[in-house]
Design a protein that fits this description.
By secondary structure, the chain is mostly beta strands. The strands form 6 sheets. Strands 1, 17, 18, 21, 23, 24, 25, 26 and 30 form a 9-stranded mixed β-sheet that branches. Strands 16, 19, 20, 22, 27, 28, 29, 31 and 32 form a 9-stranded antiparallel β-sheet that branches. The longest helix is centred in the last third of the chain and has 13 residues. The protein has 3 helices and 32 strands. A hairpin with a 2-residue loop joins strand 25 and strand 26.
Length: about 475
C-alpha cells in the first residue's frame, strides 16, 4: 500500500541524478530498393491532397511481388514527414481497412538525421490477425490518417512522403518497407535507413507472448465486485501522499464508455482545505509485478472540470513496493508523474519519469534518477516503461523519453497504481470548490518481455478485437 510521503520526489531533485529528455536515436545509411526483384511493393494515394489540412491521410496497399507467401506481421512501412512544431504530439487512426483496423498498428518515431522534408515518421505494422499475402496478392485498401493532438492544421507540402497529385493508387518509393527486418522497398530520407542496427524500433523478436495482465476497466462503479475479483483495490484508507487531512474517496473512481471503449475516471476535488480535499487511487492488491513491459493509455488534464485553476496537482501511472526500512536496498518505484500547474519548486507544466533505488524519510535522503519535460501534456498519451536486466526505459506516445541505469532495477515485486492527488494548497488559495479529472483507458503488463510501443498497441488491439476486457495470467509471488 502506498502510504509513504510522496512529496519526497521533487524535494530530492537536487540529490537525484538527472537525465536529459531523450528522443529516438537512429543512426542510418541511405537505402534504395532495387528496381526489380523486391518481394513486396507499396502503393500509395492521398485522401487529403491539400497543402494544408486538418489531418494527413496516407492510404496504402502492400503488394506481394515475389514468388513466396508473405506474412504481413513481418512487414513494417514508414511514411516520412516534417513536424509542424517543436515537441508536437501526433495521433494515428485507421478509418477503414480490408484487413481490419484492429490488425493495423501505427506509431511515430523521430529521425536522427533530419532533412528539409522529414524529421519524423509514421510506422505502420500488422498483427498476426492480418494474415498473409500469396504471390501476386495485395492487402487491399488501408485508409490511414494522422493528425496533431490539438487538431490544428498541419502542412503536408513539405512532407517527404506526401504526393499531392497521388489521388489513385500507384507504386510509391518515398515510403519504405521492411520485411523480416530488411529494407526491401523504397528510399528513406538521406541518412535515415530504418534497418540500421541501432534503430530502437527494430529490436528483433522480443518474444511478446508471456504471462500478461490486461484490463480495459470495463466496470460499472467503484463498488463493482469484479474490481476486487480482478485483483484491484480502490483506496479508502487514510495517509499520504498529499494534503494533510485529505481523504481518499473511492466513490470518485467512476467508469463510462467513450468512443466504444470503457474509461476509468479519477476525480480529485478540494475547496481549499485539507478536510475538503478528496483524492483518488486504484492499485493492484498483489505486489507480483517486476521485470517486463508496463503500459497504459492515460488522459492528463491541465484545467479543472469546474472551479478555479492552479492547484499543485499530480496525475500518475506507476509501480511501487513498500520501504521496509530507511535506505532499504530492495525498495523500488517507477513513475510517470504529470504536474499541470507545477509544484515541487516548478512554476508550470512538467512531466517526470523517475526510477527509485531507495530513500530515507528522516533525515531526508534519496537515491533516484529522473527525466523531465517542461511542456503541456494535456490529452491522451500512451505511456510505456520497460524493465529488463540492464535498464529502465520510458516511452511517451511511441517516443523514447528517458533511459535509467541498472542501479535502479527492482529486487522484488511491485504493485501497479494510478492516483491523482494534491501536493499542497499553495497553488490556488481560493475556497471555491474545484475538481480535476484523470482518465485511464487500459493497463497492460507482460512479464519478463520487452515490447516496443508498436507491439503494445498491437497487443491491446488484438485483445479488443477478440472482445477480451480482462486477463491476468501473471503468477503470484
Amino acid at each position: 500500500m502506498k502510504s509513504h510521503a510522496k512529496s519526497r520526489l521533487r524535494a530530492a531533485a537536487a540529490a537525484a541524478v538527472t537525465v536529459a529528455l531523450g528522443c529516438t536515436a537512429l543512426a542510418a545509411v541511405p537505402t534504395t530498393a532495387s528496381a526489380a526483384g523486391e518481394p513486396i511493393a507499396v502503393q500509395y494515394r492521398t485522401g487529403a491532397s491539400g497543402a494544408s489540412a486538418d489531418q494527413s491521410e496516407p492510404w496504402l496497399k502492400v503488394r506481394n511481388t515475389g514468388s513466396a507467401s508473405v506474412q504481413l506481421s513481418d512487414v513494417k512501412i514508414r511514411y516520412y514527414f516534417k513536424g509542424d512544431a517543436v515537441g508536437e504530439v501526433y495521433r494515428f487512426a485507421c478509418s477503414w481497412a480490408v484487413k481490419g483496423c484492429g490488425n493495423i498498428t501505427g506509431t511515430f518515431g523521430t529521425l536522427a538525421h533530419p532533412t528539409a522534408t522529414a524529421d519524423r515518421y509514421l510506422e505502420i505494422g500488422f498483427t498476426s490477425g492480418a494474415g498473409s499475402l500469396a504471390p501476386g496478392a495485395d492487402s487491399g485498401d488501408m485508409q490511414l490518417r494522422f493528425y496533431r493532438s490539438n487538431w490544428q492544421p498541419l502542412v503536408q507540402s513539405d512532407d517527404y512522403s506526401f504526393g499531392a497529385g497521388s489521388t489513385s493508387y500507384a507504386d510509391w518509393t518515398k515510403v519504405t518497407a521492411q520485411l523480416g527486418g530488411a529494407t526491401v522497398w523504397g528510399t528513406a530520407p538521406e541518412g535515415n535507413d530504418p534497418t540500421d542496427p541501432t534503430d530502437p524500433t527494430d529490436p528483433g523478436d522480443p518474444g511478446e507472448d508471456g504471462p500478461t495482465l490486461f484490463d480495459d476497466f470495463n466496470y460499472s462503479s467503484h463498488s463493482d465486485p469484479q474490481i476486487a475479483a480482478h485483483g484491484w483495490s480502490v483506496r479508502s484508507n487514510a495517509g499520504g501522499p498529499g494534503v494533510p487531512g485529505a481523504t481518499w474517496a473511492p466513490e470518485n473512481v467512476t467508469f463510462a464508455t467513450q468512443s466504444g471503449n470503457s474509461i476509468m475516471n479519477l476525480e480529485t476535488s478540494t475547496a481549499g482545505s485539507g478536510e475538503s480535499t478528496k483524492q483518488t487511487e486504484i492499485l493492484t492488491q498483489s505486489m507480483k509485478f517486476r521485470n517486463g513491459t508496463y503500459a497504459a493509455r492515460v488522459k492528463f488534464n491541465d484545467a479543472p472540470k469546474s472551479g478555479p485553476d492552479g492547484d499543485h496537482l499530480v496525475q500518475t501511472f506507476f509501480t511501487i513496493n513498500d520501504l521496509k526500512a530507511p535506505m532499504a536496498d530492495d525498495y523500488a518505484e517507477y513513475d510517470f508523474e504529470y504536474l499541470p500547474n507545477g509544484g515541487w519548486g516548478e512554476s508550470g507544466n512538467i512531466l517526470y519519469t523517475t526510477s527509485w533505488e531507495t530513500y530515507r524519510p528522516d533525515p531526508w535522503e534519496a537515491v533516484n534518477q529522473h527525466t523531465e519535460s517542461r511542456q503541456s501534456y494535456a490529452g491522451w498519451h500512451d505511456l510505456v516503461v520497460t524493465i529488463d536486466n540492464s535498464a529502465i526505459t520510458y516511452y511517451i506516445d511511441g517516443q523514447l523519453f528517458g533511459t535509467h541505469g541498472a542501479a535502479y532495477l527492482p529486487e522484488r515485486g511491485m504493485s501497479i497504481n494510478f492516483n491523482q492527488w494534491l501536493i499542497d494548497l499553495a497553488g490556488q488559495t481560493s475556497t471555491s470548490p474545484r475538481a480535476y479529472d484523470q482518465q485511464v483507458d487500459y493497463v497492460l503488463h507482460v512479464k519478463d518481455k520487452v515490447l516496443t510501443p508498436s507491439q503494445v498497441n498491437a497487443k491491446v488491439a488484438a485483445y479488443r478485437t477478440a472482445g477480451t476486457t480482462f486477463q491476468d495470467t501473471v503468477p503470484a509471488g
